[in-house]
């Protein structure tokens, strides 16, 4: 269908459409210069669209809408061959347009006198473009943000679907269309078309009747203050920039958004909302996709409903009419906050999205304390280093999509005054120090920070000092001075989320390890002993033999130690080693300030040979085994393989192993992950 303006029964009949200019974007744009006088080309183009209605059955309830041109419609013109928009002769940063005349419902004549300009990067000015008879054109119907300008990127004309409030009029104003690849007849400075131009809609139209429930019983919420429209697979478009490369992302035509928010939602007395929504499907993104509507009322109640996407995705030019029930999810709960840096107390009041946007008091560090239960709120700490004390055995659930519970743009120190739990089910991290280091400490005794997120890459928290994803992260680098930090193995919760427990404690004695301590054991009490017997005499348990002393980037700050016995028998696959053997070992053998993990290829090499050289020649490790047995442990058995956490880069079905043959020579090899090999745990500290 070639559809443009919609009339949805009485609701759409009298709707006037307008285009919006972001004039404030141009306050600092330079005065344009050109090198020759522009040519004004006169356009007179026949345009029409099929009067046939477009209908679709949705939720067993069908409706239809129809189309027509209206006075005041704006149609922008782009010369595809020259890569130039028609622009104003008095201000080339602004686009000029055609308008309809001789309107007869679904047909009209588009007329206007237009000149074309192209930005010259080399000379930093606009250049007049002369069109040719063989040029082709695109026409853009009702583009509502034609004059958007972004510093560093220049003029970026775009369609913007976020300018909606749920009303029929706002949805109609975001009902856009384009016609591409149009050849025209050039006679002097006049341009005409041999046949009527047909437009293709860029989006789908929706009318949804909302209802609300709690525990499956109907409820009537108080005023809805925000409606978030999103999709499960991030297929929703916020912007379409037609003159950009045919790709998604910062430089492409398609700017996808996980969701966008509508404030001051307009809902009819029947509960209806109207939306104009555009989607961008690549690969298999349309499969099992869902449209997600999340509403928040002025009492903090959060409701959510979903609509399954039809096979192949929502289709352009279709009108989807139906209903959506939004079920109560939770009620937001504000944390208890105090501020000790003398800063603005009003910043301890969240905005409508639940954001506490906190700035420093002059050049002082930001210092706040968060305690109690928090749900639906999050923090941005700006422009200065920050200290955040988490206290009161608190629990925080940060449900805001794509936002950490705590975000800082400079160094961030988290002080645990008690155990504290943070769940960020819609984001990959719970705490993020983007512009500096992240450090953990306590107010005294050992405390736990329990973090749950939806991405197992960063282990829930991030700082520039701890940036590597995966197994070889230097957890000990998170420790503030005089403290130690250890982290549990990843717990897969089976629901798309993962949990880690960080234990923060005063620095244990074994952090003062020296080369003279190689071959000695670390006790469960955090002290160093000569061997198992000496540890037992001190009423503690020897847990690991010190195998390497020193700092390794993204691995450890003080050294590495190896478990005195296998963490598992001769029967663990690679997955079993990572998800069963090591977690069970870590639970049964806690060491303050140390993190147990399956050693990487690099860590094995440092422990066995004291250096890393990629894939060294087989080396006799009898000295290493002698130290293990002297300490009271079990030597690595001959003619055997031990798993590393390092996958083989050329075959994801394989991982590296450390082998020892029957001559006590050891080296690095690779094998299928489904094989069963030995597991030794590595203690990083």
What does the model show?
This protein folds into four domains: 5-201, no CATH class; 205-331; 336-506; 509-684, no CATH class. The model is unreliable at 1-32 and 51-62 (pLDDT under 50). The chain is mostly beta strands. A hairpin with a 2-residue loop joins strand 7 and strand 8.
Please render the helix and strand layout as text.
Blueprint: E1 5-7, H1 9-13, E2 41-48, E3 54-58, E4 61-68, E5 75-79, E6 84-87, E7 97-104, E8 107-120, E9 125-129, E10 136-141, E11 149-150, E12 154-155, E13 159-160, H2 168-173, E14 177-183, E15 185-187, E16 190-192, E17 200-201, E18 204-214, E19 217-219, E20 224-231, E21 236-240, E22 254-257, E23 259-263, E24 272-279, E25 290-297, E26 301-308, E27 319-331, E28 336-339, E29 355-358, E30 366-375, E31 378-381, E32 386-397, E33 406-408, E34 412-416, E35 420-424, E36 429-433, E37 438-442, E38 447-453, E39 460-463, E40 483-487, E41 491-492, E42 498-506, E43 521-523, E44 528-529, H3 532-537, E45 542-549, E46 559-563, E47 568-572, H4 574-588, E48 595-597, H5 601-609, E49 619-620, H6 622-631, E50 640-647, E51 654-660, E52 665-672, E53 677-679, E54 682-684
Parallel strand pairs: 2-16, 18-27, 29-31, 30-32, 31-33, 32-34, 32-35, 33-36, 34-37, 35-38, 36-39
Antiparallel strand pairs: 1-4, 2-8, 3-4, 5-6, 5-7, 5-10, 6-8, 7-8, 8-9, 10-14, 11-12, 13-21, 14-17, 15-16, 18-19, 18-24, 20-23, 20-25, 21-22, 21-24, 25-26, 26-27, 28-30, 38-42, 40-42, 41-42, 43-44, 43-45, 45-46, 46-54, 47-53, 48-54, 49-52, 50-51, 51-52
